[in-house]
Design a protein that fits this description.
The chain is about 70% helix and about 0% strand. The protein is mostly helical and about 170 residues long. The chain folds into two domains: about 5-60, DnaJ domain (Helix Hairpins); about 90-170. Helix 5 packs antiparallel against helix 6 (about 110-140), helix 5 packs parallel to helix 7 (about 145-170) and helix 6 packs antiparallel against helix 7. The longest helix has 28 residues, at about 110-140. The chain is elongated.
Length: about 170
């Protein structure tokens, strides 16, 4: 079941967190297995499934990155069997520079270069978010696939930067 439909909220990259929480709590009271102890085994199993769905849907829609991935998946732009596009060459060149800085740090650690690399990653992340924010704010499900492809590109770049950030964190004191 579509998580947005489950909570009866519109499909959007920007979710009203209070409405989401209200629906989550309402569903928790409705589906929690403890409230159905006298029901048949089949009904108890159904309530357990719905309670699990409620929890997973809430965690997914509450987190902006997981929500973004979910919207891309339900629109067929991410997931198993989906061929992903190549990242743009200019982005990959920037990543190559950062990866080279990481290799240099491995061989000859320098706090100043570490901070510069971390700042470079942070600046790229801010720039990416600034570029995609209007799409995220204004996207409607009936707009077609073009805006979603831009969001997918953003998501893939962000995932790449996350891996670099994880590598940078290995150098933290």
């Amino acid at each position: 079941m579509n998580y947005f439909a489950f909570f009866d909220i519109p499909v959007s990259f920007q979710v009203d967190a209070s409405a989401l929480r209200r629906m989550y709590l309402e569903n928790s009271r409705k589906y929690h297995p403890d409230f159905h102890t006298r029901a048949s085994d089949g009904d108890q199993a159904d309530m357990l499934d719905l309670s699990t769905l409620n929890n997973e849907a809430y965690k997914t829609l509450l987190d902006p990155d997981r929500r973004m991935r979910y919207i891309l998946e339900i629109n067929g732009l991410l997931g198993d069997g989906v061929e992903l596009p190549e990242l743009p060459p200019d982005f990959l060149m920037d990543m190559m520079e950062i990866n080279e800085a990481l290799m240099e740090l491995e061989f000859d650690f320098d706090e100043t270069r570490l901070q510069a690399a971390m700042q470079q990653v942070q600046d790229i992340e801010k720039s990416l978010l600034h570029a995609i924010q209007p799409v995220l704010d204004g996207w409607e499900p009936d707009q077609g696939v073009a805006p979603l492809k831009a969001v997918r590109d953003h998501y893939l770049k962000k995932r790449y930067l996350l891996r670099i950030r994880e590598n940078l964190s290995k150098f933290a004191p």
